[in-house]
Amino acid sequence: MMNFRPGSRPPDREARESEKQSPRGTAPGIRGGSGAPGGSASTQGSGGHGDPAEAAAPAVRAQDLSVVRGPRTVLRTLDFTVPRGQITGLLGPSGCGKSTLMRAVVGTQAKVTGTLDVLGRPAGHPALRTRIGYVTQAPSVYDDLTVRQNLDYFAAILDPGRAAADRRHENVTRAIADVDLTTHADALAGNLSGGQRSRVSLAVALLGTPELLVLDEPTVGLDPVLRRDLWNLFHDIAETRGATLLISSHVMDEAERCHRLLLMREGGILADATPDALLTRTGADTVEAAFLHLVDAATQTAREKESTR
Amino acid sequence: MSTQTSPTPSAASPATAPPAPAGGLNVSRTTATAARVLRQLRHDPRTIALLMLVPCLMLFLLRYVFDGSPRTFDNIGASLLGIFPLITMFLVTSIATLRERTSGTLERLLAMPLGKGDLIAGYALAFGALAIVQSALATALAVWFLDLDVTGSPWLLLLVALLDALLGTALGLFVSAFAASEFQAVQFMPAVIFPQLLLCGLFAARDTMHPALEAVSDVLPMSYAVDGMNEVLRHTEMTATFVRDVLIVAGCALLVLFLGAATLRRRTP
């Protein structure tokens, strides 16, 4: 169904199977575990060390990151890193600050304090604008243009000029194929179904081969087959293009498809670990159970602190 | 823009400066934006028909409303040739840019290497082109079929109409920043346009108004648009007043376009 063309991409990821043991769409227990994932090891704020792929600096590094929206502090002094070349899942209930965090990384969020480095530059740096692909939660495309016209326009912004016309055409065709909309290329975006429109939005982010893809709930409301296909696409992008993906979801079962997880709740980071390490640490069977375990533990600690006061 | 994301030592050597989005316009991105705006309109033939035909219909009506007094039609008709493009472009632009803001495409574009000037200029170019066609139709109808008695060159009427359209586009872009919904955007039309309409000299000569209102009308750009039209109506040559009027309208349009660009924020709360 999906069209992968690994041959046309830089073959810089030869060792991908050995280094990442592709969790694509299978049962949990993907990661054999780097080192002994003893339950005692603190996962909080660990910078993805121990991964052989981590020679380069992390794709995203946050220190003391806070975001204020109106009267509310939406993100509270976060510290985390997103390793390069992997899929990091950003999971948490609605309203916990996932989208705000993503907007901060992309550089569209105002009132960000602390340190936030993206691909070696401060978030929002103009040089990053061609290197990051960003998909907002609601599909942001022009409803009164066809799929191809939408992509043509955004491609012309990313890679302007008449000289680049052929390259643009190729890119657009590939992006449409990537999201499996080739048969709908000439349909108006406004006439497509919700899932199809969100795939148009995703295709825009895939233009121009970004190094970092920030995807805000890209699989919400899609049928299981499509969801599986998209996750396969994400893994393909990470492996053959060496791109970093930061993908948010409030559906916990998608966690098992990620290399790393950032669990969020109420503007804070609850855990930063591989899915396996998380399960081992909490002794839970599923990421959802692990999340609940962590929430309960956090509430417990907070209560104890209060009562000792 | 004004965030305090503190740059870290590891980051940002100014030597590898990005393709500057701030100052200069990027011609290909601007024309791509203009082409996109026009392409969007092409999928909406009803809007195009309304844009083109409504001014003509109004002029036609007006001609026969003043069937007994052709002099009055000359005065009002010429003024309206300048006012129509301003109003229609104001409406279309304010709604179009509001949609861009609310649909998330603006956020997406500003996260891409698109300069704010490119976007604004793209819009101005697209709607300016539309305004040329609209004004040409209306002017041709008025001059050739409705016997609008113009002393000067119809080309000058067209020039003023085009500048008015640009002014409308600029005002629409600017105002859309303050509208949170289509309802509000539409209400800005009476708020921004109607006072100018009342004070521009269409209903009463500006020097016969209460001095306070005359002073206000002196600083409203539409007054000069109507003045310019009337200069063409009465004089065969380009008068100094005409040149002044044209420069003022063009200057206002540019100024408001800059203000409009300043309302675009890459970072939003």
Automatic annotation (TrEMBL), chain A:
InterPro entries: AAA+_ATPase, ABC_transporter-like_ATP-bd, ABC_transporter-like_CS, P-loop_NTPase. The keyword Nucleotide-binding applies. Gene3D superfamilies: P-loop containing nucleotide triphosphate hydrolases. It comes from the Bacteria. Residues 1-58 are annotated as: Disordered. Residues 10-22 have a biased composition (Basic and acidic residues). SMART domains: AAA. PROSITE patterns: ABC_TRANSPORTER_1, ABC_TRANSPORTER_2. Keywords: ATP-binding, Nucleotide-binding. CDD domains: ABC_DR_subfamily_A (cd03230). Residues 60-291 form the ABC transporter domain. One of its GO terms (molecular function) is ATP hydrolysis activity. PANTHER family: ABC TRANSPORTER G FAMILY MEMBER 20 ISOFORM X1, ATP-BINDING CASSETTE, SUB-FAMILY H, MEMBER 1. This is Multidrug ABC transporter ATP-binding protein. The lineage of its organism: Bacteria, Bacillati, Actinomycetota, Actinomycetes, Kitasatosporales.
UniProtKB/TrEMBL annotation, chain B:
Pfam families: ABC2_membrane. Keywords: Antibiotic resistance, Cell membrane, Membrane, Transmembrane, Transmembrane helix, Transport. Its main location: membrane. Residues 42-267 form the ABC transmembrane type-2 domain. Residues 1-15 have a biased composition (Low complexity). Coiled coil: none annotated. Belongs to the ABC-2 integral membrane protein family. This is Transport permease protein.
